[in-house]
Amino acid sequence: MKKLLFLFAFSFITALTVGQTYAVVKSTDTPTPTPNNLEQQVSNLKDKIASRVAQLNLVDKRGIIGTVTDVTQTQITLSDLNGNIRFVDVDELTKFSSPTAKSNFGISDITKGSQVGVIGLYNKESRRILARFVDVQVNPVLISGAISDIDKTNYNLTVMTPDKKTYTISIENITKTVSYTKDGGVVKSGFSKNQVAERIVVEGFVDIKNANTIIASRIILFPDLTINPAILITKPADLQLQGTIVPSTGSGRKLTPLVK
């Protein structure tokens, strides 16, 4: 009798455990998606991909060079090399630089009339460029004239041009000076050999602190050439010819011109 009761109890407990396990497994099963739901998900994914592709086709990397006509904290207006007006947007990711800047340089340092190069993302629809790099372009200038003054203390030259303008030429360690003559050709020269009223050509860059000062990179002197007649510079007394040159006979006697 006891044996029968034990078998009955064991069978009942086993059946109850299997039923609970099946109920738990059954309740955690993920419902199988219907064909309509699957098609909708695929359609949504296609729309997202198509939208992204359209955005990528609308934006292109591009670079432009132009002259600043207007500038604000969020936008730079340029006149490009063809005279077209271009709008450049800037944000917190835009980086600014200038070859003459010795400290932090930003959009507030860009002024009207400056020439800048811009690289960024160009929107073909709005025709605007979102700048990633803005670099101020500094072009060299060429000055041709004559030396009107020499500042030996500060190593500066004053050069006058035919249109009566004067420029201060700053001689730096990087300045290369040469002299050209018909007989000697091109030879290396230095600051100590400069002479007032000597013809000179200077290549350099305008000082950002003083538009009338040129930081010289190259200087060519022409001792044999006369200066432009429009430049009125008087040579110092020690460079001027003293007296009148009288031709000699070769025998030591000087010829005296006949005076009627």
Order of helices and strands: HHEEEEEEEEEEEEE
Content of β-strand:
35-45%
Q: What gyration radius follows from the Cα positions, in whole Å? A: 42 Å
* Helical segment count: 2
The backbone outline, from C-alpha atoms, is: rod-shaped
Helix content percent band: 10-25%
Structural class by SSE content? alpha+beta
Please summarize the sheet with the most strands.
5 strands, mixed, barrel
Total strands: 13
Order the strands across the largest sheet as they lie in space: 1-2-3-6-5
Mean pLDDT: 79
Low-confidence stretches: 21-28, 241-260
**Separation of termini?**
176 Å
The oligomeric state of the chains shown is: single chain
Describe the structure.
The protein has helices spanning 2-27, 35-58, and strands at residues 59-71, 75-80, 85-89, 95-97, 115-123, 128-137, 141-151, 156-160, 166-170, 176-181, 185-188, 199-207, 210-222. The chain has 260 residues and is α+β, with helices and mostly antiparallel strands. The strands form two sheets. It has a five-stranded mixed beta barrel with strand order 1-2-3-6-5. A five-stranded mixed beta barrel has the order 7-8-9-13-12. It is rod-shaped and about 105 Å long. Mean pLDDT is 79; it is low at 21-28 and 241-260.
